[in-house]
Design brief:
The complex is a heterodimer of chains A (243) and B (461).
Chain A (H helix, E strand, L loop, with lengths): L1 E4 L3 H6 L1 H13 L3 E3 L9 H5 L7 H11 L4 E4 L2 H10 L5 H10 E3 H8 L12 E5 L2 H6 L15 H6 L6 E2 L15 H4 L1 H17 L4 E4 L2 H13 L5 E4 H5 L3
Parallel strand pairs in A: 1-2, 1-3, 3-4, 5-6, 5-7, 7-8
Helix pairs in contact in A: 11-12
Chain B lengths: L7 H8 L3 H23 L4 H17 L1 H14 L3 E5 L2 H14 L4 E4 L3 H6 L1 H7 L3 E4 L2 H8 L16 H12 L8 H18 L2 E4 L3 E3 L4 E6 L3 H8 L2 E7 L3 E2 L5 H12 L7 E5 L7 E7 L3 H5 L15 H5 L1 H6 L10 H11 L1 H4 L11 H5 L6 H14 L5 H14 L2 H17 L10 H5 L10 H9 L5
Parallel strand pairs in B: 1-10, 2-3, 2-4, 4-7, 5-8, 7-10
Antiparallel strand pairs in B: 5-6, 6-9
Helix pairs in contact in B: 2-12, 3-12, 9-10, 16-19
Classes of the chains: A alpha/beta (243), B alpha/beta (461).
């Protein structure tokens, strides 16, 4: 199985360890992982700012990089959602193939690789931050608003990790307030939302906040560091890959 | 030239200055959201009901013209005077004419967000007709010369101490008596007198039934009934989108409305009006005010399914931390943010950006409006129309250019990261909104791209 590794642009720049963990994890699980080195960004920052019309160049590059893989896998629900919903190109047939074979990491592990066991250990108290795009739009977990049976792809994977102690926040799926450019254009609200999330996890006395999207975690990390908190953020891939 | 309203982000920043107050506001609304969850959970067929409600509304919107005419014809048969208003100005002048022809001096009004949307209160006041809002929350904000901050809970932004001060000033209640029962009773006494002495009653409409020509008003306080039954003249105002085809459809909507709004199984009063009482005159004003335009926009048409339950307000983490007034529109919250640009793109261009697109609004919506997708779509429309400004357009063009050229991206990103490491104050300063209340992520020595080149180069194609 040939997997194209799609790494969000800001993860490439600021969180290489998350990309490495994702790659190692997929390799451990038997995938042939290729990172197309000329990939840049999915184009979501423009589109969510109202400038989807400017994303054509980005889309064309994305398609050039990711054509021909069995699957495209990415450790971000948000970026995957964008590709699934908005990747279009003059070469629409390739765009369509990619839209249908792009997977968020936990979704790929659960639904395609059907992972039953993980050789991972993470003996810490951890709070899960549920990222909205993965949850509400990719349906990686049930949603507190909907009256449907509960499930969570992230939690079912985390439960396979030895030694981990998971503690849920009270508002299990409230948005952290990152929101892309929202985090600077609506700075006051964004920070207030992030502080609420951090407060709940801190009350649970967790050592780590984890999640499927580094963007949310980057925002929460910024707040935690400003508060000189001891709580650290860590991407799910790093926990699932931890020995 | 009109000036733009204070932007949502600026207003939100001011709102957020008082942290304990904002926590209280957030918790209060979250409590309502939690009550909604509990009520929804008690109905096993909840998700089916939402599907049905959405489908009934979709059907109705697909032939709105027919249903409006059917409703008009049946309402007239019932003895209701039906008026058509194409915009807010017509709505206001029609009502003024009716009131003048009856020599009305004082009107009691039960909550109608449509009259807020049309600016009826100031319009009537300028013409010497006094309007008393009789919904308790709306009465409070009216005394304070404010607008409702929430379509179901108009005074939700006020703590009981503020209400006490307002009542002390206007109703001469005891100073610092913050007992809600005392305050409510005081307002009730004053309002009862208004009900008895008013010359006319104005109400909103929750549902208008095409097949019967009747309409339903839902209140918890019974104030619509008090007004409508005590007056010789009742004027009900409704937007086009309040139509439903059949009386039996009410079974779907009434079950969803109160549960979604406040977590009650049903509103205390669901009052059905079909014809004027003997000796009474009943008027109904059907209002377009941009609704036909919205109906003509395929990507925004579904916003007209809204039954004004405000569940999207209560669940919205942005609304809870910015307050209703920050939306500078009669209808605030996520639904307001997709309705307002239809009324005035220029003044409301900021509202679709007052969201993280988390999608919680879409999930609670009892009629399944895809609110977060419409927020996204409005962003595209507003930027295409040029409401983003030249600076934003230029910044986005530059970003798009860098991200579409892999070599340029690598050089730009590596330079930026090196700068962050070498000259952190370039980023860690007041001009950077990220840094105001958050630390910047630490910039690693090498990107993943560089690591990959060094460690896995052999695999590259």
């Amino acid at each position: 199985m040939r997997v194209g590794l799609f790494i969000p642009c800001y993860v490439d720049q600021f969180y290489p360890q998350v990309a490495i963990a994702t790659m190692e994890l997929l390799e451990k699980l038997g995938c042939e992982v290729v990172y197309p080195a000329a990939q840049t960004c999915c184009g979501q920052p423009m589109a969510n700012s109202g400038f989807e019309s400017y994303a054509a160049g980005c889309n064309a590059n994305f398609i050039k990089q990711f054509r021909g893989f069995d699957y495209v896998v990415c450790p971000s629900g948000s970026c995957v959602l964008h590709v699934k919903e908005h990747l279009h190109d003059a070469d629409e047939s390739t765009a369509s193939v990619i839209r249908n074979t792009v997977y968020e990491l936990t979704e790929f592990l659960t639904d395609i690789l059907k992972v039953e066991q993980l050789n991972a250990s993470f003996p810490f108290k951890v709070g899960l931050h549920v990222s909205c795009h993965g949850q509400r739009m990719l349906h990686l977990a049930s949603m507190s608003e909907r009256m449907l049976p509960p499930f969570s792809k992230a939690l079912s994977l985390l439960h396979k990790v030895a030694g981990i102690e998971l503690i849920d926040p009270v508002r299990a799926d409230e948005c952290c307030g990152f929101g892309g450019t929202f985090c600077v254009t609506e700075e006051a609200v964004s920070v207030a939302m992030g502080q609420s999330r951090v407060e709940e996890h801190a009350a649970n006395d967790v050592e780590y906040i984890t999640g499927g999207d580094m963007s949310c975690l980057m925002h929460l990390e910024g707040i935690l560091k400003r508060q000189r908190s001891n709580i650290k953020v860590i991407h799910l891939a790093q926990i699932l890959n931890a020995q | 030239m009109s000036t733009l309203p204070v932007s949502h982000s600026k207003a939100a920043e001011a709102f957020l200055a008082d942290k304990p107050y904002v926590s209280w506001h957030d918790e209060t609304l979250w409590f309502v959201r939690s009550k909604r969850d509990k009520a929804a959970r008690s109905v096993p067929e909840w998700e089916t009901l939402r599907e049905l409600a959405s489908a009934v509304k979709a059907h109705t919107l697909s032939r709105l013209d027919e249903y409006l005419v059917q409703f008009e014809s049946n309402a007239k048969k019932n003895g209701i005077h039906v008026h058509w208003a194409n915009d807010a100005a017509e709505h206001n002048s029609i009502i003024t004419e009716i009131l003048r022809s009856h020599n009305v001096q004082k009107v009691v009004k039960s909550k109608s967000m449509l009259t807020e949307e049309c600016g009826l209160n100031p319009y009537l006041a300028e013409r010497g007709i006094s309007v008393i809002d009789t919904d308790l929350g709306e009465y409070i904000v009216q005394l304070r010369n404010e607008h409702p901050s929430h379509i179901v809970l108009p005074a939700i932004h006020l703590k009981k101490e503020a209400v006490s001060d307002t009542f002390h000033e206007h109703l001469h209640t005891e100073k610092n008596n913050n007992d809600p029962v005392y305050l409510t009773r005081s307002a009730r006494t004053v309002l009862r007198n208004h009900f008895i002495t008013a010359d006319a009653a104005i109400t909103g409409v929750n549902f208008a039934v095409a097949e019967t020509g009747g309409f339903v008003i839902c209140t918890n306080e019974g104030n619509a009934d008090m007004g409508a039954h005590a007056s010789k003249l009742h004027i009900a105002c409704m937007g086009f989108e309040k139509i439903i085809p059949r009386a039996e459809d009410l079974g779907i909507f009434l079950r969803l409305l109160a549960r979604s709004a406040t977590g009650q199984p049903v509103t205390t009063y669901s009052s059905h009006f079909h014809r004027p009482a003997p000796g009474q005159e009943l008027h109904l004003v059907l209002v377009n005010n941009g609704r036909a335009r919205q109906l003509g926009r395929p990507e925004f048409r579904n916003s007209l399914k809204c039954i004004r339950c405000a569940a999207c307000f209560n669940t919205c983490p942005v609304y809870r931390r910015s307050g209703g007034h920050s939306y500078h529109n009669a209808v605030a919250g996520p639904i307001g943010a997709i309705l307002a640009p239809n009324l005035d793109m220029k003044n409301n261009a900021d509202l679709p950006f007052a969201s993280t697109l988390c999608g919680s609004c879409t999930n609670v919506c009892p009629v399944k409006i895809n609110i977060h997708e419409q927020l996204w779509s409005w962003r595209q429309v507003l930027m295409k129309e040029g409401y983003g400004g030249k600076a934003k357009e230029a910044a986005m063009k530059t970003m798009a250019a860098v991200l579409s050229k892999p070599g340029l991206f690598v050089r730009t990103a590596n330079t930026a990261r090196k700068l962050m490491r070498a000259v952190p104050w370039l980023f860690n300063n007041k001009l950077n909104p990220w840094y105001r209340q958050r630390e910047m992520p630490s910039a690693p020595a090498q990107s993943f791209k560089t690591w990959y080149k060094k460690n896995r180069n052999e695999q590259q194609g």
